[in-house]
Amino acid sequence: MLTLGGAAQKAAERADFARWRQTSANLLKQLKLDYPLAELRHWTVLLLPLFLFLLFWSSVSQPVSGGIFDTLGTESGAELHLVDLNSTFNLTSSSLVNARSLQLILAFSMVIAGIFAVQGTRQNFSRYPYVLRVGLIYLFILIWLGVAAWRVTLSDEQFIAPSIDFLGWESQEWSIVALICIALGMFFYGLLSNRNPRNFEFSLVLIMVSGLVMLAPLNMDQYQTNVSTLVAVWIMFGLGMNIVVGYAGLLDLGYVAFLAIGAYTYAFLSPINTQAKLNRTELNDLGWAIYIGLVVVPLVVFGASLAWHRLGRGNTSNRPAATSALKRLAPLWKNQPPLLVTLALIGVAVGATFLVRAVLEASGQLEVWQFSPFLVSLFVAMFAAAFAGFVLGVPVLRLRGDYLAIVTLGFGEIISLSLRNLSNITGGPSGAVRLPQPVADDTPALTASLAVLYLNVVFILLIILLANRLRNSRIGLAWLAMRSDEDIAQSMGINLVNAKLLAFSIGAGFAGVAGMLLAANQPGGIFPESFTLQQSINVLALVIIGGMGSIPGVIIGAIVLVGLPEILRPVQEYRIMAFGLLLVVTMVVRPSGLLPTPPPALEAEAQNLYQSRREE
Amino acid sequence: MSLLELRNVHTFYGKIHALKGISLRVEEGEVVTLIGSNGAGKSTTLKTISGITPAAEGNIILGKQEITQLKPDQIVGLGVIQSPEGRRIFGRLTVRENLEMGAFTRDDKAGIAQDLEYVFGLFPRLKERENQHGGTLSGGEQQMLAMGRALMAKPRILLLDEPSMGLAPLLVKSIFEIIKYLNEERHTTILLVEQNANVALQVAQRGYVLQSGHIIIADDAEVLAADPSIREAYLGGH
Description:
The complex is a heterodimer. Chain A is mostly helical. Chain A contains 25 helices and four strands. Chain A has helices at residues 2-14, 17-30, 34-58, 67-72, 85-88, 99-119, 130-152, 171-193, 200-215, 222-247, 256-269, 280-310, 325-328, 339-362, 371-393, 401-421, 423-426, 445-472, 474-484, 486-491, 496-520, 533-546, 551-567, 574-589, 600-615, and strands spanning 59-60, 83-84, 432-433, 525-526. Chain A has a two-stranded parallel ribbon. A two-stranded antiparallel ribbon of chain A has the order 3-4. The longest helix of chain A has 31 residues, at 280-310. The two termini of chain A are 43 Å apart. Chain B has helices at residues 42-49, 72-77, 95-102, 109-122, 124-128, 139-152, 169-186, 197-203, 221-226, 228-234, and strands at residues 4-13, 16-26, 31-36, 57-62, 65-66, 80-83, 157-161, 189-194, 206-211, 214-220. In chain B, the strands form two sheets. A six-stranded mixed β-sheet of chain B has the order 6-7-8-3-9-10, with helices on both faces. In chain B, strands 2-1-4-5 form a four-stranded antiparallel β-sheet, covered by helices on one side. In chain B, a hairpin with a 2-residue loop joins strand 4 (57-62) and strand 5. The longest helix of chain B is centred in the C-terminal third of the chain and has 18 residues, at 169-186. Classes of the chains: A mainly alpha, B alpha/beta. Chains A and B meet through helix 19, helix 20 and helix 25 of A and helix 2 and helix 3 of B.
């Protein structure tokens, strides 16, 4: 045994991997294969998501019964299902990993491959002629719009949107409106992106990947949709946590409290929640009042203010140097047009809202139009959670590191215990039950779940957009500085109070939206057990595993930490153990996360080294 | 009228009385140095000026304005910029981002770009390492970065806390040459805290000697450098 080990060690010592790599690289160069091989690898990375998507799309997970395939059955969908996972892998319904899990793994791999494809795009593609670049972008847009249109118009049962019958139009008409909107958006995106040739490949791959992600849920059954929604909610949750921990470096161990606040806000405002003793008529009045107060009026005020500022009417000339991040946002509420104009605008907006309401009432839509409570609770949940974040932020302003973690842990426990014990408000341990999904009453279950999944995807995109803007803004810079060193950040002129409170509130607001969408896809109800320390730690682990401060990292982290355990559920008691092992191995092998934000210095250094080696 | 004046300033760390009535002034365009042994209160004085450890008693006056009660970020906004002790730069940000961080309170993009060029001209090494993480720089480069970052804020008065700490003698020399250049060519007002009194007194016009929270001697730099008791205590006795 010992001699064997010794021999292996000697062999390893003798093996000069670097030289072998060098020799093989030289050999490839002599054979003039190095360029084609690099090109092949590049295109494989770019096209892998498409390949995985096709595999996912053409595989069938349910041989005879259940899900969307039942209704598709012998019609147009049948010839598409080329791969029968059940017969390929000889699976039965009692297998540990069944076909629908395999299919789901394919879908998740597609998302991960998509992230790598977007990140693997090369910058300079100006060598292709302009016509080809523009043509390819639009061809891609057309292809995926075509596929979406075809799939969407198959039949009403499989339609992605809730089957609303709103203002005399049915789902089909609305789907066409939606497609036109998407096409217009893509058109303008195309216009913007192909002005800059450096972004050409990036645009192309981004359009492809987002198209694939938008299409994939159409091929999912109930189970897969639910798991995907769960992952989507956790991505949103993680994106919020990423702001608090990843950007601002504030360790928050009670973060699940904001998820709970979002979820229970939805429960309180839901019309058919018996626990909260709110009936439908009460909600509609309350809902509209909240909607006007929290959405319409602030939007008008902000809008008027921004317009006034942009038009140059406001006081922009002698602006003092901004000494805090908040002052940078001042044009949002300062520089108002004259009070009368603002009041008139608010009046018009409120009047319009009432007009819409009157029209809805007259056409008998108000009762079934449940998007109203949904939108209301969306904003209320966001603001409530953000306010809670602010309230938590104030007492912990002076705390750092371990001390901050302990206090936030306490905050999380307070919320968790309140949910369990304030039975007359929250429903106590039996939870807030019978929550409505944001769809019309007679929508089939699968369609409703799909609608919620799509809502999640849309909100994830919005939050990613927002988080990305924040990261690159002055506030983002202030957060990064604060994470690095609070004292120095302070002596650079950063207002720590503002920066911390903003991080807490914005992160909490994202978590509130996530919680609301979590409740929106749990018709069975929400329970205090879903909002415990375990979840806080899970979301922290998700951000760390993905790579602190990295948005794609959060997506991968959520898939690995939430999606995988859910898929592994059939393995029962081993799954947590396997999961823990996975965490340990990940942290040992990739200590800065699965997909950390690229370290610019090391990258540049490596490139320089590579260049100089090549020249030698 | 002085640019910066401290009148009878007292500062406490909890119950510890760190500054026991410091009075000093810095004129426009001057280099003033604070020397003293460990724990004399040199760094505390700078932290008190920049509001990080606010004064319990006394007044700090910048030009005509009282800044004793202001918050650190407001004081930075008025142009009192500190380059902290121990070269504390942002290790996870690139050199360029570090410098941009210095200009956080500023609004004028053109001016910032101009000053970036100026700092790169002053420290060519930083230009070479523009896209490298701050944490990967050598000690001397980190000190250059910390000073460059402070300059990016367009200081009315620059507070330098022990720029020579832990540096090789050759690097100390070049850092002090730059301090001299900043003062003589760019007319930057500098309040310099140093343990290495020998070099500090060479670039400074005036100096204060601190001992356990009190100013014990205040005089011109040449006089201090020639004073036998100071030579005994702080200049290594030669």
